[in-house]
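#structure-requests
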Amino acid sequence: MTATNSKTVSVSIVEGVMTICMSRPDARNSLNKEMMLALSDAFDIAAKNDHVRAVKLTGEGSVFCAGGDLKEIFQENTKPMDIKNLLDFYIRPIISKMLNLNKPIVTVLNGPAAGAGLGLVLASDMVVAHEKSSFITAFGQIGAMPDSGVMYLMVQNMGLMQAKNVVMRSQTLSAEQAKDLGLYTYVVAADKLEEFSHEILKELSSGPTVAIGFAKQALRDASRISFEAYMDAESLAMAVISTTDDKKEGVSAFKEKRRPLFKGH
């Protein structure tokens, strides 16, 4: 089933999994405004469509995302407010929607990720990469610093000291290095990438979607709110989850010693 398509992003929904594919391979899937708006729209669909239970984010070609489209962003008449508006009104909504989506997002790295593309990687819930999918913090090479929420998410995933080392030295990390630092979840051989990621997405899309969504929110908030506030949110979430059909199915399956068949509600 095709959900929506633009010239820069293709979207399809199959068996509960929405696949969002960046489709500017000739430009190494660099983010221009059209693509950013299309990505934002795609995550809106993911949030609102009850048939979507997991999301796969990937890119067409040999590069996942080379970052922002510098030719479009930096022109002779580009002003400081143009840069601020780009981040506030184009990039920020995408990252925010990914972080707040109550469904799991698996980014499948078909190749290297750089610049603003790192924000997409780090805002996902799991990252499956093949061996040549490097993590490129190239901002320093153009006299800039990481944007698109990259540093915020790097600190959360790998810690402050390691993030400083990577950012200040504009390091390029191999896929294995990124995994060891907590930036990628799995690294597999290139010829196993689709098969491996498919199995993870199949598992997630057949899970208790509401409970997974609440768990994602709780994990996101754990490092930024007090323990008491966290426990308040946790107890409320558990109360809501207890009313779902999936919770009832899970308990019944446990008592009957069988595998549960979750429906996502």
